[in-house]
Amino acid sequence: MTTNTVVRLEKENNLVLIRINNPPVNALGHAVRQGIYDGIADAADDDQVKVIIIICEGRTFCAGADIKEFGKPPQSPGLGEVLERIDACPKPVIAAIHGTTLGGGLETALACHFRVALASTKMGLPEVKLGLIPGAGGTQRLPRVVGVKTALEMITSGKQVNATDALEAGLVDKIVNEDLEAGARAFAQAIISEDRPLIQVSRLDDKLLPARDNPGLFEAFRQSIAARTRGFEAPEACVKAVEAAVNMPFEQGLAFEQGLFRELVTGTQSAAQRYYFFAERQTAKIPGISKDTGTLDIRKAAVIGAGTMGGGITMNFVNAGIPVTLVETTQEFLDRGLNVIRKNYDISAARGKMKTADVEQCMALITGTLSMEDVARADIVIEAVYENMDLKKEIFSRLDHICGPETIMATNTSYLDVNAIAAKTSRPEHVLGLHFFSPANVMRLLEIVRAEKTSQKVLATSLALAKKINKLPVVVGVCYGFAGNRMFAQRKREADALVLEGALPTQVDKVMVDFGFPMGPFALYDLIGLDLGWRREASTGSTIKERLCEMGRLGQKSGSGYYTYKPGSRTPIADPEIEQLIKDFAQEKHIHQREISDQEIIERCIYPIINEGAKILEEGIAARASDLDVIWVNGYGWPVYRGGPMFYADTIGLDNTLETIKGYQARLGNDWQPAALLEKLVARGQRFQDVE
Ligand code: 3HC
Q1: For atom 34 of ligand 1, which residue has the closest CA?
Q2: Fewer C-beta neighbours within 10 Å, C or N terminus of the chain?
Q3: Cut 0.85: pTM above it
Q4: Residue 310 phi/psi, 5° resolution?
Q5: Residues with catalytic function
Q6: Residue 21, burial from CB neighbour count under 10 angstroms (0-12, 13-18, 19+)
């Protein structure tokens, strides 16, 4: 029997299967909710039916509410109503779960009286990552099943647990190894024959008792997550809701959860985080590239240069089981590079992130060499030498003679012209940029730089490869600094100017940290090293940075830069000597210093990023505004609860953004020339999100 297009009711003797089929992830959209609601009512009324199983087709049990429905008028029945009906059903309801049972999906399973899981199932409540709390009883039911501490950890982190841990925690009643449906059916018949009482999670209380006697637990938990949740609203709401589960009767707790959920779902943080969820999934959708675009097989890789970047890039391939030939110019550099890689793996093993035996296995996948000819059999070669155009051109010209006809040749340049590098080969269609971010073995972001002649096949292969090596790819075009660094340069210029005009590095950094960045521009300079790109012979003391380098203040690594550092510490300490140095420098350059407001710092450090992003979009360097947001959230520490610079501009209004930019243009000149696209969108009353 069919209840609707996505939910089927299958009756056999004393059993009913409610089968959901709503690809791709069985999200609990309106039709699914209605189908379950009607199915439970039907089964409850049918005297022949003794037991009900809810099961899903496809790759997963329900992976949550349908995120696309948020922000639209709610349609009855809501998920809460559906789960109430399951909870109150007088006949046992079993959730047969597999895949990733997440959010509303896990809440549905928790409202059932029993849960049977396939051994490979992962379970979690990831709502916090969308700026939300579980809004269909998850905060009230989960602690009643797994205890308060585990529930707090799961709900505030959104992390998934595997089936074995779930069984141990009481989250599932039985694990099935192969055939979920058969296992669930057998479990159902056992329940009937044993006449097992229904377990209504809403009526359980015993696992809440220890927390009721220990109210300090919540304060301690809040403190333990404070650093990693700074700036986010949802984690505190999660804690409050679990606190309500402990201190209020179930129904009252449920209403409290609902109130918090409504507040968050209509707020700007959740809107930003939901936007970001889809933004990440958009990046791989490239006009002209489809599933039918052919790809090349990447079984062997080569990396030229065993420095920090080359070493990190090598680790990405090795971690995915792809052997790498690592090329250096001297044995000393090669040994140093290999030692750093080994040290990184040893640290991971010491932290329990990998087995000690795996360290050897990973190292065995790397072949160090001093001969570039040894890359001849690689399917992809990535050049990661220092930023020098002549050197890069020479390398690509040599690679052209060494590599096979189908080999992809990539440069890891952060700024340079990939078209000019490609032109040094006889097959520019096989050349592109793969801009990894540092540390390359940790950062997920990968800018894929599509050069003028890069073929679709090479691009499609790079996108597939990025997924394989666990990177988040964003395709951009060729220009100086590509998308991310080109936008970043704008903030750098304004931050440097602000301290000359009278703001202190500590003030600029604090404003940026309060905005949500993990650190401000000057602490970041110190972390990266002020001497990046600086040479003593060429230094003329024409900028503060040059003067600091000349003084040997190179940043954290030398114990001082814009700040000072105690030995072994990374905590920046404000230095009066620097404040004086900046004042003297400004005087020398006849720059009038004044008091600068925090608001001006925000506007001058943030708005030029947006303006440059708009120029990048109008030039076609990026395909969509959300790609730029993904770059900034992943590569530059932009707080995800503000969506990204382009989304942020949409939030404050493009008309306001343009007006502010024009104001600074009048004061500061043509660095602030508004992007034509920004003016066009304002004239049309559109947002960056509307640009197709
Ligand atoms: N709602 C709407 N669409 C969803 C969705 C959801 N909950 N989950 C995934 N999708 C869509 C994706 O946008 C994507 O669409 P596309 O093909 O058009 O780009 C498609 O489903 C496949 O998703 P992925 O590309 O992410 O596939 P993966 O296999 O890599 O991952 C997943 C699958 C682990 C389920 C991942 O999609 C995911 O984490 N989804 C979100 C889970 C989530 O946050 N659930 C909570 C929702 S909020 C909630 O339940 C509130 C409740 O408490 C009331």
Answers
A1: 100
A2: C
A3: yes
A4: -60, -40
A5: 107, 127
A6: middle
Could you tell me if the CB of 230 is within 6 A of ligand 1? no
How do residues 343-376 score in pLDDT, each as one tens digit?
Answer: 999 999 999 999 999 999 999 999 999 999 999 9
**The token pair that represents 243 in the structure block:** 């606190």
Task: Round to whole Å and give the CA distance between 555 and 522.
Answer: 10
Task: Give pLDDT, residue 160.
Answer: 97
Residue 484: how many other CB atoms lie within 10 Å: 24
CB 25 near ligand 1, within 6 Å: yes
- Looking at residue 270, its pLDDT comes to 98
Q: What is the pLDDT of residues 254-282, one digit of tens each?
A: 999 999 999 999 999 999 999 999 999 99
Centroid of ligand 1 to alpha carbon of 594 (angstroms): 50
> What is the token pair recorded at 628?
């730029």
For residue 547, how many C-alpha atoms fall within 13 Å in the half-sphere facing its CB? 12
- Residue 97 forms beta bridges with which residues? 117
Q: Around Cβ 299, how many Cβ atoms within 10 Å?
A: 12
CA–centroid distance, 64 to ligand 1, in Å, is: 7
Could you tell me which of 605, 408, 582, 621 has the C-alpha nearest to residue 524?
605
Could you tell me the distance, in angstroms and rounded to a whole number, from the CA of residue 25 to the centre of ligand 1? 6
Atom of ligand 1 nearest to the CA of 134: 53
Q: 27: Cβ below 6 Å to ligand 1?
A: yes
281 lines ligand 1 (CB under 6 A): yes
Ligand 1 near 682 CB (within 6 A): no
Q: How many CA atoms lie within 13 A of 644 on its CB side?
A: 27
Q: Measured between alpha carbons, how far is 502 from 82 in angstroms, rounded to an integer?
A: 60
Q: Ligand 1 centroid to 577 CA: how many Å?
A: 52
**By the 8 A CB rule, do 639 and 272 touch?**
no
**CB 133, CB 235: distance < 8 Å:** no
The span from the CA of 43 to the CA of 52, in Å, is 7
Please state the separation of Cα 387 from the chain's center in Å.
Answer: 28
Q: Which amino acid is at 88?
A: A
